[in-house]
Write a structure and sequence with these properties.
It is built from 20 helices and 13 strands. With 492 residues, it is of the alpha/beta class.
Length: 492
């Protein structure tokens, strides 16, 4: 099926009833004109020319179309549409809509062939109701209800604004666990002032028979209340609301080019669950940016403490420029990039949205980074001075400091996987990229210490088992302290 899903469903229904376009098409009965469906009119009309007359065919919302009719067809006869008949047809329509069905009414009108200028209001007035109500069932996907629950736990409020009838909208809302005491019509939104609508939005989550102007009004009020709004839309008239919202989301399948141009995001599968998954991915990416930034800052600060501290103590140059370059380009960078591949935290969709003005580094986190950086810098200086007994020990002392600060950083990277959960909570191997990067960088550092060509380039000497033992004795407390801190924070 190509094109609008509703039109496609009507073609399928006609084919099921053995009505095929090839059987009713006639070269002598051309389409004269068409009055397209709009969110304001809520109906569509086409006029065909027949040998002795023109016939207008109308389809649209029952509550809009029925008042335009003055007669209805029963078998082969046309009867006057009385108030009792109207009440009966409306009741049938309401019963169907209450089941979550989208309902279309059909009508027609014969127009004298000599009329060549058509005014839509005149064409549709005094039509004959064909006594046909077409019911379209649009079941929410099984993933939508679960997505609604995830959105709720993530602090995201969902409001349904639809062109369907209030009964249909409420039935669908119940199906997806979107609870609202009632559905507000678009005509009611027009009558409400800003204060009244703001109050209604606190409890009412379903709005029916709305047009783009109503959507724009709701978005504007929510933004004035300080909310970050994401708006979905597919039509040309939805463009203003998509542009006004903080995040405009256009439908990729049935969305118009105008809507896609106005939006910030195009939803390729037109699935609400994809929006919620996008929120989760966005939160994961933000968390990973924080991890990446915090880890690199703590590593760089440790290097600054080590170099500046050694200069202050009037020690020989603790790290050579080529060694600093090796750390920044090879070991730190690879591990930090792998840290940016961390899977989402298990509580990522169980915390409220963050304030857009919130800095990426809070005061508490900054202090933690300082503490870790000072510890790694001071222990690097300690290991350097421990071996700095004479001139011929300078190369070994520098190798110890160079290797030590890299190993400290490799141990420290596990602290930055999470500031809330311990390693046994998130799983030591849950980020295989980090494990691979860790093994590669540590292996490279071992090669630097023992492989002669690299020794020559980076000015290192071999280390014995006791030297490695000292490095790990000084480095392991960084991880232990971090795990204790996270455990105590979790208990609190």
């Amino acid at each position: 099926m190509l094109g609008d899903p509703t039109e496609g469903a009507l073609v399928v229904a006609a084919n099921k009833a053995k009505i095929f376009k090839k059987d009713i098409s006639c070269e002598t009965c051309p389409l004269i004109t068409e009055f397209s469906f709009t969110s304001v009119r809520k109906r569509m009309t086409v006029i065909y020319h027949y040998p002795e007359k023109n016939i207008a065919y109308v389809k649209g919302a029952p509550e809009v179309l029925l008042p335009l009719c003055q007669s209805y067809q029963k078998n082969d006869k046309v009867k006057e549409l009385t108030g009792i008949d109207q009440e009966y047809f409306n009741q049938v329509y309401k019963d169907m809509a209450a089941k979550g069905l989208r309902i279309l009414a059909l009508a027609y009108k014969e127009i004298p062939s000599e009329i060549t200028h058509f005014i839509v209001e005149e064409v549709e007035k005094k039509s004959c109701f064909s006594r046909d109500l077409l019911a379209l069932l649009t079941l929410p996907g099984p993933e939508v209800k679960a997505a609604m629950e995830r959105a709720k736990t993530a602090g995201i409020e969902v409001i349904m604004m639809t062109g369907d009838s209030p009964l249909t909208a409420l039935a669908v809302a119940r199906e997806i666990s979107l609870f609202s005491p009632k559905a507000i019509r678009g005509t009611e939104i027009e009558k409400l002032d800003e204060a009244s609508l703001r109050e209604i939005l606190q409890t009412t989550k379903v709005f029916a028979r709305v047009n783009p102007a109503h959507k724009l009004k709701v978005v504007d009020i929510l933004q004035k209340q300080g909310h970050i709004t994401a708006m979905t839309g597919d039509g040309v008239n939805d463009a203003p609301a998509l542009k006004k919202a903080n995040i405009g989301i256009a439908m990729g399948i049935k969305g118009t080019d105008v809507a896609k141009e106005a939006a910030d995001i195009v939803l390729l599968d037109d699935n609400f669950a994809s929006i919620v998954s996008g929120v989760e991915e966005g939160r994961r990416e933000y968390d990973n940016i924080q991890r990446f930034t915090r880890y690199l800052l703590s590593s760089n600060f440790a290097e600054i403490v080590a170099i500046a501290g050694a200069m202050f103590l009037k020690l020989p140059l603790i790290l050579l420029p080529v060694q600093i370059l090796w750390m920044n380009l090879i070991t730190d960078g690879m591990t930090a990039l792998a840290l940016g591949m961390e899977p989402p935290a298990k509580d990522v969709m169980h915390r409220p949205p963050r304030d857009p003005q919130q800095p990426i580094l809070s005061k508490k986190v900054f202090l933690i980074i300082l503490a870790i950086g000072i510890w790694m810098g001071v222990t690097t200086i300690f290991s350097f001075t421990h071996y700095l007994g004479s001139e011929n020990m300078l190369s070994k002392a520098r190798t110890i400091a160079f290797t030590g600060i890299i190993i400290f950083e490799k141990i420290n990277v596990f602290n930055f996987r999470s500031f809330r959960f311990n390693l046994w909570d998130i799983g030591f191997f849950s980020n295989p990229f980090l494990i691979i990067a860790w093994l590669i960088t540590v292996s490279l550092q071992i090669m630097v210490v023992y492989f002669p060509p690299l020794q020559h380039i980076l000015h290192t000497v071999p280390l014995n088992l006791a030297d490695w033992g000292l490095i790990f004795i000084l480095g392991i407390p960084i991880l232990i302290a971090g795990e204790i801190f996270k455990f105590l924070r979790k208990q609190h």
